[in-house]
Amino acid sequence: MRRRRIKQIILFMLLHLITLFILLLPLQQGHFFGTNGDWYSQHIAIADSLRQTMIKSRSLVPQFIQLGGGSSIYDFAYYGLLRPDILISCLFPKVEMKYFIAGYAILGVMASVDLCYIWLRTQHMQKRFAIAGAVLLGAATCFFHAHHQIMFVNYMPFLFLALIGVDRMLERKRYGMFIIGLFGIYMHSFYYAISCLFVLACYFFFKLGKQRELVRLFSQKQRKEAALYIAGTIGKVAAAIALSIGMAMILLLPMGLDILSTKKDGGSAATEALMLWNPQLEGLLYSPYGCGMTMLALYSLVWGLFKKGRRFLSGVILFTMLCPVVSYALNGFLYARSKILIPFVVLIVYLTADMLQSVYREDRTNRICPLLVCAVFAFYNEKRQILAYIDVAILAIWLVSQCRRLPVWIRKNVFWLVALPPVAASICLSMSGSYLNELCKRWKITTYVTYLDNADARQRHFSAEQIDETVKDSRYRVDVLSNNFVNSNLLVSDVCGRTSMYSSITNAEYADFYYNVMHNPIGVNNRVALTPGSNPCFSYFMGTRYVITGKNEVPDGYETITTNGNYVIAENPNVLPVCYGTTNIMTESTYEQLQFPENMVALCQNVVVKGIGRTSNQRESDAHRKAKQAVKQRNVGTLFTERSLKEFKQIGQKGKATLEFNNSVRSHFLVLSFDIERKNGRSVLIDINGVANKLSADNAPYPNGNDHFVYVLPIKDGTKRLKVKAGKGYYQIKNMSAYLMDKSAIANSSVVIPSNVKQKEDGSTIFAGTIAMDKRGYFVTSYPYRDGYHIEVDGKEVYAKKVNQTFVGVPLSSGTHTITIQYVAPGYYMGLTISIVSIILLGIWMLYEQGYQWEQRNKIQKIRD
Q1: Is 132 contained in some domain?
Q2: Which of 196, 421, 560, 738 keeps 20 to 30 A from 438, CA to CA?
Q3: Same domain for 662 and 732?
Q4: What residues does 559 pair with on adjacent strands?
Q5: Is 485 part of any domain?
């Protein structure tokens, strides 16, 4: 027994070493197990911000997070709101979040490989073939996402627990492991929950058909009893699934309501015509945005069609991989991308290990036809045709080696030959971002990964202590302009919130305000990322008092207060507070008569409301006139020199130009806009004085559709020219227009700043203070409006109103008022209650199961006695 245990430990250590070899070998010295893209800008930054918010609010489920102008915490649930690594990191707030995320991801892959081996051994597989299956799983290129898009694979250990739980349900009537496995899937990656349930359903029905009792009933033609047995079993499984969902309702219910209340930019891919079949088999072969298996997996699936007892499972998986409609449905009818098929890798590994064992045992199932099918799909695989042909050749060599006439020792050990292509493919994929990077560039091979430098400090321009000493006034906001994309989700201050965010779930009205009302530049490929910029009107309106930026890139109106190397913290006290009172009121009907950029000025000067009863026509007309007078449209032909204007419109040829003014311009804000017309579908990027706009390529995952570029630029006295840089390409600049705005007009003349503002650390209170109004007006915030706000004025709850078309506010009478604003996500309390009840029910269920098992054992013992 002791020797067997030692062997088991050595075996698992060997699996761990192989897994670590595949994961860590591609890293060069100085690299970190994480990538420069979404892993850094979303997964690390959001996790760190969640940790800060949890610690500050002293709650595991705070309701509000100061990102995106103020958001529901469930806007970021997609990134692991209640994931164990984030919860554990709260105990060690001084340790960088990247170590928790990377460490947990590596442990997750190792646990998946271990559980895969354990599961395969329960399927009556020999040890060597269970090891082979576990190694093939660890070599699947989908685990590239352990350092990229972690929620694509971080649920995998719990999927294996649920698979083991299916066997325990059917064989031993024990449901606990199945329920806990499902619960773990939901908490790690709810996006993949439907795919995982589909995988588990396939496996459940596959195993149900093999149950002895059911086989006996059908053999005796007792169809009614068989139907009752099936219905009863399915009913219990459905109850187990319902209980697992109930346990996760604290996450799923508020998050579901949050998703329904807003929208996600699915991009143009959602409207593309669906193909009838996918000959590239991207969901199965090689691609990390699929299962990432090799021709061995395809061979196993086709081989299974010829094998009795495997046809159902093989057929379902092959149909799923070949038919994009399945991916389209599993993706929630957004698009037909194969990334949603990654959970099927567990069943493919099972069928592959089973095929290896059957071939070794001289199974007579047809071997030639599956190989020919693999050759056909290798021919159709245009992206990786050479790799596919090599893969088929190795597969053919292995099949020849399984000839009965060859010695047993050859047939026994040569099966490891088929593990070479998946291991090599996985390592080379990750190495494309390190050792093989230059080679891939030279051969124009697409690379998926750029590893993070271990010394990367783009999210650490200043220490927490430096920021705390400088960024002190909680009535305002702070934004990070340097490396703005990777910092868009990072809460750099415990005191001040941010206007930016980058999440798959975004308040649609705030995103519309951000890009279509204030016309912040779109410098990335999608409209999902709300990256901070230096738009002076937006900064004033949103209360961005502090900015972290480059030493030579301080925006107009800001003064440096702290320096750290090449970066500074700058301050502009002349911005609106996040919450304030005002008596400058404009009705929506008047506001809608204004055009851009006049409407932007009006928002900075007034609060725009739906209707206020009797109102002064004179005041309305004065506000309207004041907004229009602040903006002067200029003819671009007279504003800029003819030569520089011509050079600018042909910038796609040279890549840089200078827009020269005919006359020196006095201190103003210049609003410059134009349309981009292109024919080749390639991306277009134009930078004017450091402000960049981008029209993404047609084949971008989420095309931004930004064909109308708008720039709001501060112009100092005596400015003679604008510097322009752009990407070369075939595009035209059309419908160019220019406006000059008086800088002094970007101000509200009747701002009342709150006093006695307190920060309550309860996770839901976002404002508590007093305000003294000298006459009737509005209490205005720049918190984006959504369901869930609770506002008390002088101890009485009042309804939150939508002001400025996007934000929260309430009308106030004259006098001094005490105001409290709280936010609780819709469905939170109901979800919490359902979760508590479901966990209690699980405990009762497991106690009942345990009691039933003891009772059965006692009966058996009595019979034996």
Answers
A1: no
A2: 421
A3: yes
A4: 571
A5: yes
CB-CB neighbours of 594 under 10 Å? 20
CATH number at residue 685: 2.60.120
Q: 713: Cβ–Cβ under 8 A, 6 or more apart, which residues?
A: 669, 670, 671, 672, 688, 689, 691, 722
Q: Which helix (H) or strand (E) holds 428?
A: helix 420-431
Could you tell me which residues come within 8 angstroms of residue 43 by beta carbon, excluding any fewer than 6 positions away? 79, 80, 101, 149, 150
Structural domain includes residue 102: no
Distance (Å, whole) CA 177 – CA 243: 12
Q: Quick: pLDDT tens for 823-841.
A: 999 999 999 999 999 999 9
Cβ atoms 311, 359 nearer than 8 A: no
- Indicate the residue type of 260: L
Are 65 and 49 within 8 A, CB to CB? yes
Q: Are both 659 and 754 inside the same structural domain?
A: no
Model confidence at 243, in pLDDT bands (50, 70, 90)? very high
Q: Flag whether 641 is in a domain.
A: yes
Q: What pLDDT score was predicted for residue 680?
A: 85
Q: Tens digits of per-residue pLDDT, 748-770?
A: 888 999 988 887 777 789 999 99
Identity of residue 313: L
The model's pLDDT over 114-145, given as tens digits with 9 standing for 90+, comes to 999 999 999 989 998 999 999 999 999 999 89
Integer angstrom CA distances of residue 425 from 19, 429, 437, 795: 14, 6, 15, 65
Q: Among 691, 712, 741, identify where a domain stops.
A: 741
> Across residues 296-300, what is the average pLDDT?
93
Alpha carbon separation from 381 to 281, 284, 337 (Å, rounded): 8, 12, 17
The verdict on 790 and 820 lying in the same domain is yes
Q: How far is CA 467 from the centre of its chain?
A: 28
Asked if residue 469 and residue 572 are part of one domain, the reply reads: yes
Point out which residues pair with 72 in neighbouring strands: 64
Please choose, from the candidates 315, 288, 290, the residue with its C-alpha nearest in 3D space to the C-alpha of residue 301. Answer: 315
Distance CA 117, CA 160 (A): 10
**What percentage of the chain exceeds 70 in pLDDT?**
94
Identify the domain boundary among 580, 601, 617. Answer: 580
Beta bridge partners of 497: 477
**Residues 715 and 780 placed together within one structural domain of the fold:** no
- The domain total for the chain is 3
Residues 775 and 731 in one domain: no
- Expressed as residue numbers, the domain containing 729 is 633-741
Q: What percent of the chain has pLDDT over 90?
A: 61
Q: Are 360 and 260 in contact (CB under 8 A)?
A: no
Ranges of beta strands (E only) in 416-525 are 451-453, 477-480, 501-502
Round to whole Å and give the CA distance between 234 and 240.
10
Residue partners of 227: CB distance under 8 A and separation at least 6: none
Same domain, 482 and 571: yes
Contact 633, 739 (CB under 8 A): yes
Provide the strand spans (E) within 566-706: 567-571, 579-582, 585-587, 607-609, 631-634, 656-665, 668-678, 684-688, 691-695
- pLDDT reported for residue 198: 97
Check if the beta carbon of residue 205 is closer than 8 Å to that of residue 234.
no
Residue whose C-alpha is closest to residue 543's, from 768, 739, 780: 780
pLDDT digits (tens, 9 = 90+) for 761-819: 777 899 999 999 999 999 999 999 999 999 999 999 999 999 999 999 999 999 999 99
Do 730 and 771 fall within a single domain? no
Residue 426 CB partners (closer than 8 Å, separation 6+): 22, 139, 140, 141, 143, 144, 292
Four-residue CA torsion sign, 439, 444, 446, 448: positive
Among candidate residues 250, 48, 56, 251, the one with its CA nearest the CA of residue 762: 56
Q: Report yes or no: 754 and 819 within 8 Å, Cβ to Cβ.
A: yes
Helix (H, G, I), strand (E, B) or coil at 312: helix
